[in-house]
Amino acid sequence: MMETAADGTTPAGGDANHGSTPLGAASTPPVGETGDPAPVGIVDIGSNSVRLVVYRGGARIPVPLFNEKAVCALGQGMGATGRLNAEGRALAMAAVGRFVALSKAMGVKGLHVLATAAVRDAADGPAFVGDLEQANDITVTVLDGADEARRAALGVQCAVPNAEGVVADLGGGSLDLCRLQDRAFADVASFPLGLLRLDEASGGGVRAEAERILDAALAEAPWLQAADGQTLYAVGGAWRALARVCMHRMNYPLRVLDNFTLSVADAATLLDEIAGAPPKQYAQVPGLSKKRMAALPLAAITLDRLVRATRPRRVVFSVYGVREGQFMDGLPDALKREDPLLASMTVMARQAGRFRAHGDEVAAWMAPLFPAEPPELMRLRLAVCIIGDIFWNEHPDYRAEQAFHRVLRLPFMGLDHRDRAGLALSVYHRYGGDPAAAMAVDAETLLDDPVRVRRTRVIGAALRLAHTLSGGAPGVLRRTRLARAPGGSVTLTLPAGDPLFDGRFIQRRMEKLGRSLDLTPVVEMA
């Protein structure tokens, strides 16, 4: 019986230039508003599962409209037979047929069907591809190992454009590696050592044998040593499950998998512990499926050997991989160049804001409060300003709390957990949240920097003042001026004689801004 599961943790994408299959006119309008670009769809035929993800079209960010997988285990037993699992083959045929039909119903104009390790390595893989294409009137692109590794790395770059280090994608059939340097693919390698095959080759996951096999394979890629002191990006469902367990063991305060980061020391301790423990020990870990639980020891062993081979500074878990790489590859160059975080925030502001988005205006207005601001912090402040007014329709009694939780947990790209905590705290203070509340204290712990904690309060107070002054309408703030004087004051200059700018109505907001800066607030008319 085919098992299907919805899984919102891993968006996916397509490539308009490679492996695209026209579906003809849809019987229903495209998802979204009339005139929106048609959705982009991708079917990913893996060694363990077949997945369909449909994205909203025409955007820099791969926003999933639909995400479903069917567990087929195509690669089960391939190590012994060299052929696709017969039962899995039938299930995969049915899953692909269903997904093609769903894509048509959703108005997908180009469906991108990819097959990876199991299909490319099986003796009967070409026949299976032929059957799929004939039955569904589609084109199937079979990725070789190097292509799969590059697409996984491009998926990481979709979220983190300046990623440097090694991207490791662990699937059921293969372990694919790509080294990123200066935003380019420096080296690639692919080994038939996905979890299904490694389990078979090691006699059912015997630790010493699995370590021997992995060490021998990784020694064939000496370029891995070039990642010494950089980042190891862990991609794939098995390692996402591993991240859940690590969070649970650490009592980590945030349950967002993307960009969850371990120091090498923490990784060594946790991976050794998980590799040697019975999987059922982690049955109570939130969000961990039984199927993923069984593979935890072997997933931990594989990541541990990679850490030893690459000697990175840190391990970062990414929820973006091959499907996002495919999506990114099909974007126009202008969209590829957009900052993924700011693009996410801009879409949110356009969809939920009261007025035309004007975050850049707000950011420029408060810039004098932040002299000598480094570019990375300026970028984050701009992101806060872009979404600084989009929670206006939440209940007033819960507005700060709701805004905080949404920013902390939404699947933004290009954001590590410390920066995520900083954004959430800034928005929380913008809506007047209690700084002593447990949620704020936990986020400050995650931010782990008193200077940046104070900065979130200044940004929040400045945003609160800005929207009181302007009512959230664009163009108003340009008529005022905010300044930080050397003499220990923060001054707001307003146009004289205009009832819109009666200083008596913003005095409390100015006082709060002054307290956040430890400066005397001054309002003057000019």
Oligomeric form: single chain
What is the count of β-strands?
16
How many individual helices? 21
The helix content, as a percent range, equals: 40-55%
Structural class: alpha/beta
Distance between the termini: 76 Å
Strand count, sense and closure of the main sheet?
7 strands, mixed
- The proportion of strand residues reads 15-25%
Shape: elongated
Mean pLDDT: 90
Spans where pLDDT lies below 50 across 5 or more residues:
1-34
Radius of gyration: 25 Å
Q: Your description of this structure?
A:
It is a single chain. The protein is an alpha/beta fold and 526 residues long. It is built from 21 helices and 16 strands. The chain has helices at residues 78-81, 86-105, 117-121, 125-136, 145-159, 195-201, 207-218, 237-250, 264-276, 290-294, 296-310, 322-329, 333-336, 340-352, 359-366, 375-386, 399-409, 417-430, 438-447, 450-470, 507-517; strands spanning 3-6, 20-22, 40-45, 49-55, 64-71, 110-115, 140-142, 165-170, 175-181, 184-191, 231-235, 260-263, 314-318, 481-485, 489-494, 520-525. The strands form 3 sheets. Strands 1, 2, 3, 4, 5, 6 and 7 form a 7-stranded mixed β-sheet that branches. Strands 10-9-8-11-13-12 form a 6-stranded mixed β-sheet, with helices on both faces. A 3-stranded mixed β-sheet has the order 14-15-16. β3 (40-45) and β4 form a beta hairpin. α16 packs across α18 (417-430) and α18 runs antiparallel to α19. The longest helix has 21 residues, at 450-470. The protein is elongated and about 85 Å long. The relative contact order is 0.09.
